[in-house]
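Worked Example 4.2. Consider the chain below.
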Amino acid sequence: MSTENEGTAVPPAPSAPPVPVDAPAPAPGAAPEGHAPSAGNPAPTAGGVPAAQLPPAPPGQPGAYPAAEAGWPAPAGPAYMGGDGGAGGVWGASYQQPAPKPKKGRGGLVAAILVAALVAGGVGGGIGYQLAKNENSSGSTTVAAATSGGDVKSSSGSIAAVAAKALPSTVTIEAASNNGQGGTGTGFVFDTQGHIITNNHVVAEAVDGGKLTATFPNGKKYDAEIIGHAQGYDVAVIKLKNAPSDLKPLPLGDSDQMVVGDTTIAIGAPFGLSNTVTTGIISAKNRPVASSDGASGSRPSYMSALQTDASINPGNSGGPLLDARGAVIGINSAIQSTASGGLGGSGGQSGSIGLGFAIPINQAKYVAQELIKTGKPVYAKIGASVSLEDSVGGAKITDRGTGGSASVETGGPADKAGLKPGDVITKLDDRVIDSGPTLIGEIWTHKPGDKVTITYQRDGRTHTVDLALGSRIGDN
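Applying the procedure from the previous section yields the following structure tokens:
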């Protein structure tokens, strides 16, 4: 198969799954792409980091998970793709999956992704932590880069000019839990009221009463509070306390209009090196990516990502991905890491290998606005449980949902459209669907109420049906 923007087949996915840039590290073999360890918090050892993978399958369903109706597993382990809460925690569209493994075919990277924000201390920061520890014996991981180049003036529209204008509106975020564990990520100014957009996994440690600060390139630091966070989307909004009156929000672009080959500029704090600017291009669009921070019981995040070869490392999570004009087109969230070696092992790769993934800003903007408005994320759903098996050529509606419940939610969008267990969804509008996670990511690029066309196979025949996506207000 091919991606929407390419006419040739996409090569098989890399041998190891992508990892979020700023979160606790997964098991050896997958490295977090996110938080850089905070100074004073020792990096965990290779043997002390929890595996970045979904919890064991529910009893009686070997190797399978109910699909998250909003797009991610429920607290007990089942993942959902867009449904309402009900008995057993089903959100409307559950999926069932085998052990996580890299996807092929369309080039979808559906596996445990390392979160970009490194969480220092006993929780685990994965490879990012190990690298920071090895290369900075002093324990300090935050180095402020110069923001001016002397008297040399950059031409308008140059990368230097874009960076000079955008840097003052980016922040380095430090999040710490009540027990002092935490790490470093990135964020950017969303409005003049002091709202900052970042990744959910960047601020996760501070959700339950922890400490959160945001530091601007000029050295000014502000305490901050979490306004809302959406684990499924991996988007969070924080607000500066006593915010300055001269905040300049970064302009938002149109991620739908980006094409493969367009210039990209990333700003973040890789391995704690604040105010770092890197460049690249859009390598692909609509790349299916599933990420997990590796924490026990955590739900995965799903995105139909912008892929870029701009250098992104642990600490870049939550930072802006800009176009050539300096408009935000995405939020840097995850990276692909090579297979073996894991946490500092001989064969692993813990930093950028040119495969980074960003949440499209068109989606993130909507999520952020909902979080600011209500503090709660809103997820689109179809109300059906789908398999995560990658051998069925699409997203197969399972025979049963979470806890033995019906796999098609009664009265939900899928039910009203006549979809049944055993149907294999192969397209959503013009997007090819090769798996359950791919379907979740595509559903979440839409808003509740959007009308979509579903193409599916039943008994060897292809059918199409139109349906209006339902909604679920999530608790995170």
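The chain has two domains: 13-53+100-376, 378-473. The two ends are 34 Å apart (CA to CA). Compare this with Example 4.1 before moving on.
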